[in-house]
Design goal:
By secondary structure, the chain is mostly helical. It is built from nine helices and four strands.
Amino acid sequence: MSEAGIQKVEAVALGARPLRYYDFFMAAFVAILLLSNLIGAAKLSTLGGFTFGAGILFFPLGYVLGDVLTEVYGYARARRCVWAGFAAMLFMAVMSWVVVSLPPAAGWPDQGAYEAVFGSTWRIVFASVTAFWAGEFTNSFVLAKMKLMTGGRHLWARTIGSTIVGEGVDSLIFYPLAFYGHWTTAQVLTVMVTNWMLKVGWEVVLTPVTYVIVNTIKRREGLDVYDAGTDFTPFRTRL
Protein backbone atom coordinates (compact mmCIF):
# COMPACT_ATOMS: atom_id res chain seq x y z
CA MET A 1 0.00 0.00 0.00
CA SER A 2 1.23 3.50 -0.78
CA GLU A 3 0.50 6.66 1.14
CA ALA A 4 -3.13 7.58 1.84
CA GLY A 5 -4.13 3.91 1.55
CA ILE A 6 -3.81 3.80 -2.23
CA GLN A 7 -2.62 0.47 -3.63
CA LYS A 8 -0.43 0.53 -6.73
CA VAL A 9 -1.53 -2.32 -9.00
CA GLU A 10 -1.04 -3.45 -12.57
CA ALA A 11 -4.12 -3.12 -14.73
CA VAL A 12 -4.11 -6.83 -15.64
CA ALA A 13 -4.43 -7.71 -11.96
CA LEU A 14 -7.78 -5.96 -11.71
CA GLY A 15 -9.53 -8.29 -14.14
CA ALA A 16 -13.27 -7.66 -14.15
CA ARG A 17 -13.29 -6.39 -10.56
CA PRO A 18 -16.16 -3.92 -10.03
CA LEU A 19 -15.10 -0.36 -9.32
CA ARG A 20 -17.18 2.19 -7.44
CA TYR A 21 -17.13 5.16 -9.79
CA TYR A 22 -16.09 3.80 -13.17
CA ASP A 23 -19.64 3.56 -14.58
CA PHE A 24 -20.36 7.17 -13.66
CA PHE A 25 -17.26 8.37 -15.51
CA MET A 26 -18.17 6.31 -18.56
CA ALA A 27 -21.67 7.82 -18.58
CA ALA A 28 -20.27 11.35 -18.19
CA PHE A 29 -17.71 10.75 -20.95
CA VAL A 30 -20.34 9.58 -23.46
CA ALA A 31 -22.81 12.32 -22.46
CA ILE A 32 -20.26 15.12 -22.95
CA LEU A 33 -19.18 13.64 -26.26
CA LEU A 34 -22.73 13.45 -27.63
CA LEU A 35 -23.92 16.79 -26.30
CA SER A 36 -20.87 18.73 -27.45
CA ASN A 37 -21.39 17.36 -30.96
CA LEU A 38 -25.19 17.60 -30.96
CA ILE A 39 -25.73 20.98 -29.31
CA GLY A 40 -22.44 22.79 -29.79
CA ALA A 41 -21.28 21.75 -33.24
CA ALA A 42 -23.85 23.65 -35.31
CA LYS A 43 -23.43 27.08 -33.74
CA LEU A 44 -20.76 29.66 -34.47
CA SER A 45 -20.19 32.30 -31.82
CA THR A 46 -18.10 35.47 -31.64
CA LEU A 47 -16.54 36.77 -28.44
CA GLY A 48 -14.02 39.59 -28.37
CA GLY A 49 -13.79 39.55 -32.13
CA PHE A 50 -12.87 35.85 -32.20
CA THR A 51 -15.22 33.43 -33.98
CA PHE A 52 -15.34 29.77 -32.94
CA GLY A 53 -17.61 26.75 -32.88
CA ALA A 54 -19.53 26.69 -29.61
CA GLY A 55 -18.82 23.00 -29.11
CA ILE A 56 -15.14 23.76 -28.49
CA LEU A 57 -16.09 25.04 -25.03
CA PHE A 58 -17.23 21.58 -23.96
CA PHE A 59 -15.68 18.96 -26.26
CA PRO A 60 -12.25 19.19 -24.52
CA LEU A 61 -13.96 18.10 -21.29
CA GLY A 62 -14.16 14.68 -22.93
CA TYR A 63 -10.37 14.63 -23.11
CA VAL A 64 -10.16 15.62 -19.45
CA LEU A 65 -12.45 12.73 -18.54
CA GLY A 66 -10.43 10.47 -20.83
CA ASP A 67 -7.32 11.47 -18.88
CA VAL A 68 -9.04 10.71 -15.58
CA LEU A 69 -10.26 7.32 -16.83
CA THR A 70 -6.81 6.27 -18.05
CA GLU A 71 -4.97 7.64 -15.03
CA VAL A 72 -7.30 6.15 -12.44
CA TYR A 73 -8.63 2.98 -14.10
CA GLY A 74 -6.05 2.15 -16.77
CA TYR A 75 -5.98 2.00 -20.55
CA ALA A 76 -8.25 -1.05 -20.95
CA ARG A 77 -11.16 0.58 -19.15
CA ALA A 78 -10.61 3.87 -20.96
CA ARG A 79 -10.66 1.85 -24.20
CA ARG A 80 -14.14 0.53 -23.34
CA CYS A 81 -15.33 4.10 -22.88
CA VAL A 82 -13.91 5.16 -26.25
CA TRP A 83 -15.75 2.30 -27.95
CA ALA A 84 -18.94 3.18 -26.07
CA GLY A 85 -18.60 6.79 -27.24
CA PHE A 86 -17.84 5.66 -30.79
CA ALA A 87 -20.99 3.50 -30.90
CA ALA A 88 -23.07 6.31 -29.39
CA MET A 89 -21.82 8.78 -32.02
CA LEU A 90 -22.71 6.35 -34.82
CA PHE A 91 -26.19 5.87 -33.40
CA MET A 92 -26.62 9.63 -33.06
CA ALA A 93 -25.63 10.08 -36.71
CA VAL A 94 -28.07 7.41 -37.92
CA MET A 95 -30.88 8.71 -35.72
CA SER A 96 -30.30 12.29 -36.91
CA TRP A 97 -30.41 11.17 -40.54
CA VAL A 98 -33.65 9.21 -40.02
CA VAL A 99 -35.39 12.00 -38.11
CA VAL A 100 -34.37 14.69 -40.60
CA SER A 101 -35.35 12.49 -43.56
CA LEU A 102 -38.85 11.74 -42.30
CA PRO A 103 -41.44 13.82 -44.18
CA PRO A 104 -42.79 16.61 -41.98
CA ALA A 105 -46.46 16.70 -41.08
CA ALA A 106 -48.62 19.15 -42.94
CA GLY A 107 -48.46 22.55 -41.27
CA TRP A 108 -45.36 21.75 -39.19
CA PRO A 109 -43.04 24.70 -39.83
CA ASP A 110 -39.74 23.57 -38.32
CA GLN A 111 -38.28 21.18 -40.91
CA GLY A 112 -35.78 23.80 -42.06
CA ALA A 113 -34.58 24.35 -38.51
CA TYR A 114 -34.15 20.62 -37.98
CA GLU A 115 -32.14 20.31 -41.17
CA ALA A 116 -29.94 23.25 -40.21
CA VAL A 117 -29.13 21.86 -36.76
CA PHE A 118 -29.14 18.09 -37.25
CA GLY A 119 -28.54 17.70 -40.98
CA SER A 120 -24.75 17.28 -40.98
CA THR A 121 -23.29 15.86 -44.17
CA TRP A 122 -21.99 12.31 -44.06
CA ARG A 123 -18.52 13.67 -44.82
CA ILE A 124 -18.52 15.68 -41.60
CA VAL A 125 -20.00 12.78 -39.62
CA PHE A 126 -17.32 10.42 -40.95
CA ALA A 127 -14.58 12.94 -40.18
CA SER A 128 -15.89 13.54 -36.65
CA VAL A 129 -16.23 9.86 -35.73
CA THR A 130 -12.86 8.91 -37.23
CA ALA A 131 -11.04 11.82 -35.59
CA PHE A 132 -12.61 11.10 -32.20
CA TRP A 133 -11.67 7.42 -32.35
CA ALA A 134 -8.06 8.05 -33.34
CA GLY A 135 -7.55 11.06 -31.06
CA GLU A 136 -8.96 9.47 -27.91
CA PHE A 137 -6.99 6.26 -28.33
CA THR A 138 -3.83 8.24 -28.94
CA ASN A 139 -4.52 10.36 -25.86
CA SER A 140 -5.02 7.32 -23.62
CA PHE A 141 -2.03 5.44 -25.05
CA VAL A 142 0.36 8.38 -24.55
CA LEU A 143 -0.88 9.05 -21.01
CA ALA A 144 -0.61 5.39 -19.95
CA LYS A 145 2.90 5.05 -21.42
CA MET A 146 4.04 8.32 -19.82
CA LYS A 147 2.73 7.11 -16.46
CA LEU A 148 4.97 4.05 -16.71
CA MET A 149 7.94 6.15 -17.84
CA THR A 150 7.54 8.67 -15.00
CA GLY A 151 6.63 6.15 -12.31
CA GLY A 152 3.36 7.96 -11.70
CA ARG A 153 4.97 11.35 -11.13
CA HIS A 154 4.21 14.67 -12.84
CA LEU A 155 0.52 14.18 -13.60
CA TRP A 156 0.38 17.63 -15.20
CA ALA A 157 2.98 16.61 -17.79
CA ARG A 158 1.06 13.44 -18.63
CA THR A 159 -2.34 15.10 -19.03
CA ILE A 160 -1.06 18.06 -21.03
CA GLY A 161 1.38 16.00 -23.08
CA SER A 162 -1.23 13.38 -24.00
CA THR A 163 -3.72 16.08 -24.92
CA ILE A 164 -1.20 17.85 -27.16
CA VAL A 165 -0.72 14.60 -29.09
CA GLY A 166 -4.32 13.34 -28.93
CA GLU A 167 -5.94 16.63 -29.89
CA GLY A 168 -3.27 17.02 -32.57
CA VAL A 169 -4.27 13.70 -34.14
CA ASP A 170 -7.96 14.62 -33.81
CA SER A 171 -7.46 17.98 -35.54
CA LEU A 172 -5.15 16.60 -38.24
CA ILE A 173 -7.83 14.08 -39.21
CA PHE A 174 -11.05 16.05 -38.74
CA TYR A 175 -10.47 19.37 -40.50
CA PRO A 176 -8.92 18.07 -43.74
CA LEU A 177 -11.47 15.23 -44.00
CA ALA A 178 -14.42 17.51 -43.26
CA PHE A 179 -13.52 20.70 -45.11
CA TYR A 180 -10.66 20.23 -47.59
CA GLY A 181 -11.96 21.26 -50.99
CA HIS A 182 -14.77 23.35 -49.49
CA TRP A 183 -12.34 25.68 -47.71
CA THR A 184 -9.00 26.89 -48.99
CA THR A 185 -5.90 25.14 -47.73
CA ALA A 186 -4.99 28.24 -45.72
CA GLN A 187 -8.40 28.27 -44.04
CA VAL A 188 -8.18 24.58 -43.15
CA LEU A 189 -4.71 25.03 -41.66
CA THR A 190 -5.68 28.19 -39.75
CA VAL A 191 -8.80 26.68 -38.18
CA MET A 192 -7.02 23.39 -37.46
CA VAL A 193 -4.13 25.02 -35.62
CA THR A 194 -6.30 27.58 -33.83
CA ASN A 195 -8.76 25.01 -32.52
CA TRP A 196 -5.95 22.66 -31.49
CA MET A 197 -4.36 25.45 -29.47
CA LEU A 198 -7.68 26.33 -27.83
CA LYS A 199 -8.34 22.70 -26.86
CA VAL A 200 -4.86 22.29 -25.40
CA GLY A 201 -5.30 25.60 -23.60
CA TRP A 202 -8.48 24.27 -22.00
CA GLU A 203 -6.55 21.24 -20.76
CA VAL A 204 -3.94 23.50 -19.18
CA VAL A 205 -6.60 25.65 -17.49
CA LEU A 206 -8.42 22.57 -16.16
CA THR A 207 -5.26 20.87 -14.85
CA PRO A 208 -5.97 21.81 -11.20
CA VAL A 209 -9.47 20.33 -11.54
CA THR A 210 -7.98 17.16 -13.04
CA TYR A 211 -5.63 16.87 -10.05
CA VAL A 212 -8.51 17.14 -7.59
CA ILE A 213 -10.66 14.59 -9.41
CA VAL A 214 -7.83 12.09 -9.95
CA ASN A 215 -6.57 12.24 -6.36
CA THR A 216 -10.07 12.04 -4.92
CA ILE A 217 -11.11 9.03 -7.01
CA LYS A 218 -7.84 7.21 -6.35
CA ARG A 219 -8.41 7.61 -2.61
CA ARG A 220 -12.05 6.50 -2.88
CA GLU A 221 -11.18 3.47 -5.00
CA GLY A 222 -8.00 2.75 -3.02
CA LEU A 223 -6.19 2.07 -6.31
CA ASP A 224 -3.52 3.51 -8.54
CA VAL A 225 -3.47 1.52 -11.78
CA TYR A 226 -0.37 1.06 -13.95
CA ASP A 227 -0.50 -0.42 -17.45
CA ALA A 228 2.58 -2.65 -17.30
CA GLY A 229 1.65 -5.78 -19.25
CA THR A 230 -1.42 -4.18 -20.85
CA ASP A 231 -2.31 -5.10 -24.42
CA PHE A 232 -2.57 -1.66 -26.03
CA THR A 233 -4.41 -2.69 -29.17
CA PRO A 234 -7.46 -0.47 -29.70
CA PHE A 235 -9.34 -3.30 -31.42
CA ARG A 236 -10.93 -4.96 -28.41
CA THR A 237 -13.40 -4.04 -25.68
CA ARG A 238 -12.91 -6.75 -23.09
CA LEU A 239 -10.74 -6.09 -20.05
